[in-house]
């Protein structure tokens, strides 16, 4: 009599091999994953990174300042990524660069507040995105209206669109960032529309706000630090002819790529006052 025959399809790479085996048990041969991709060379990898940046530039996101504190030491930072993770329990996440002092302080406090900025608070985003050196005489929050949380004792920025006070749930290191997860213990909100970040510009729902903030003095002159001015000047150079600025100047401005891509009118006027002639239209990109 013929024994009972069992058939099993074994996938190896992209080919399907049909194996007919006698007996009651089939031992599968080792298989290779068909989803693995070849390693990218340096040029391909860099090209992918650039396309990745361009793609993510077109994803609108809320602007969030994460704050924490331990006694008299208070610190805040504008985070590069923020999202809701879970509803039951309520969990949020944000990312922090490797080796940042904020990361070390969070490891100590294990608590923080996620301050979702309102459309009038572009200056807060600028303030908390630039480097700050600890000093006994100067506090990072000296010029920023804030109060201490009654729930966790962390600094809370006034008049934000919403605030989520959290305890640390978990932390993972992924690539060049730490991913922090927070369990939401208290949430509050008001009627102020949030500040958005899209295509390297600060915006509100339906409007671009970065230039308006400068023109209405919401973003004061004192907030336009050397870093911000250098970045905007670089963007002007990037939009118009390279001959506008000498090479020595351009050598130290390419790093400023995290703020608005639209320079204020005063920057154009300043260029004209210095005898620089602007072309009729921006050069093609």
From TrEMBL:
The keyword Kinase does not apply. It holds the Pfam family Flavin_Reduct. The keyword Oxidoreductase applies. One of its GO terms (molecular function) is FMN binding. Residues 56-204 form the Flavin reductase like domain. Keywords: Oxidoreductase. Gene3D superfamilies: Electron Transport, Fmn-binding Protein, Chain A. This is Probable flavin reductase. The lineage of its organism: Eukaryota, Metazoa, Porifera, Demospongiae, Heteroscleromorpha.
């Amino acid at each position: 009599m013929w024994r009972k025959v069992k058939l099993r399809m074994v996938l190896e790479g992209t080919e399907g091999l049909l194996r007919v085996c006698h007996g009651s048990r089939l031992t599968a041969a080792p298989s290779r994953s068909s989803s693995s991709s070849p390693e990218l060379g340096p040029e391909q990898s860099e090209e992918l990174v650039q396309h990745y940046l361009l793609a993510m530039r077109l994803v609108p996101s809320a602007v969030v300042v994460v704050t924490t504190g331990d006694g008299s030491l208070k610190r805040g930072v504008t985070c590069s990524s923020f999202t809701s993770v879970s509803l039951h329990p309520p969990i949020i996440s944000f990312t922090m660069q490797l080796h940042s002092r904020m990361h070390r302080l969070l490891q100590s406090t294990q608590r923080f507040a996620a301050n979702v900025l309102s459309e009038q608070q572009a200056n807060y985003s600028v303030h908390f995105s630039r480097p700050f050196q600890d000093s006994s005489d100067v506090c990072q929050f000296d010029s920023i209206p804030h109060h201490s949380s009654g729930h966790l004792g962390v600094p809370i920025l006034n008049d934000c669109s919403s605030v989520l006070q959290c305890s640390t749930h978990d932390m993972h290191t992924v690539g060049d960032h730490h991913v922090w997860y927070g369990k939401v213990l208290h949430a509050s909100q008001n009627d102020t529309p949030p500040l958005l970040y899209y295509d390297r510009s600060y915006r509100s729902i339906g409007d671009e706000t970065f230039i308006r903030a400068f023109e209405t003095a919401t973003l004061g002159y004192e907030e336009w630090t050397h870093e911000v001015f250098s970045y905007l000047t670089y963007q002007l150079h990037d939009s118009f002819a390279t001959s506008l600025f000498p090479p020595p100047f351009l050598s130290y401005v390419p790093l400023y790529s995290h703020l608005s891509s639209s320079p204020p009118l005063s920057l154009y006027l300043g260029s004209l006052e210095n005898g620089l002639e602007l072309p009729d239209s921006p050069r093609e990109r």
